């Protein structure tokens, strides 16, 4: 009996160290674990007046160029850029991760329009679209201003919004950023 328990425990421990399966890679519950290393492989410029650099489809995009309805990620720094700031190639330790969501901001109130036809505000009272996200808090001895990497699953109605999968994050980050556990 003790031998069976020992074998079961050993198999469980070794299974936890095994590489992710394809099913886990595509799961919205999978995430980059605490203790993993995020590698920035190319310099990421931060635009003037911003503290974030956005990525989608394997390239850096301006905030206004992000398709918010598709997965996307961004790095965040502590200092507002004057246009010369960059996240340089390097390694960052994941010290914490947490899941959350953001809502589309909708202004409520009276609407006045001038029109020759009837106009409605299309507000049916339902909840606004949300984007589920994962924050990865980062630490580096070389680039202490880099705060975190955040990846979004894309805006959708609450019932269909998903956290980004590892496979989606890999596509979003392309060759710019990678990670190892």
Describe this structure in words.
There is one protein chain. This protein has one domain (21-105, 126-180). With 181 residues, it is of the alpha+beta class. Helices cover 15% and strands 31% of the residues. It is built from three helices and ten strands, in the order H-H-E-E-E-E-E-E-E-E-E-H-E. Strands 4-3-5-9-8-7-1-10 form an eight-stranded antiparallel β-sheet. The model is unreliable at 1-18 (pLDDT under 50). A hairpin with a 6-residue loop joins strand 8 (130-139) and strand 9. The protein has helices at residues 2-17, 22-25, 166-173, and strands at residues 37-40, 44-45, 52-56, 59-61, 72-77, 86-87, 90-103, 130-139, 146-152, 177-180. It is globular and about 50 Å long.
């Amino acid at each position: 009996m003790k031998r069976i328990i020992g074998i079961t425990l050993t198999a469980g421990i070794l299974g936890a160290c095994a590489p992710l399966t394809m099913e886990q890679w595509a799961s919205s519950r999978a995430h980059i674990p605490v203790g993993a290393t995020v590698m920035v492989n190319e310099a990421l410029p931060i635009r003037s007046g911003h503290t974030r650099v956005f990525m989608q489809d394997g390239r850096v995009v301006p905030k206004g160029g992000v398709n918010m309805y598709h997965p996307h990620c961004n790095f965040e720094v502590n200092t507002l850029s004057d246009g010369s700031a960059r996240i340089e190639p390097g390694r960052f330790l994941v010290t914490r991760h947490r899941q959350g969501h953001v809502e589309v901001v909708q202004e409520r109130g009276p609407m006045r329009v001038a029109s020759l036809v009837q106009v409605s505000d299309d507000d049916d009272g339902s909840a606004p679209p949300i984007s589920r996200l994962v924050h990865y808090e980062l630490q580096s001895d070389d680039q202490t201003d880099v705060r975190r990497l955040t990846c979004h699953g894309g805006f959708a109605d609450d019932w269909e919004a998903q956290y980004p999968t590892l496979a989606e994050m890999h596509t979003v980050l392309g060759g710019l950023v990678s990670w190892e556990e």
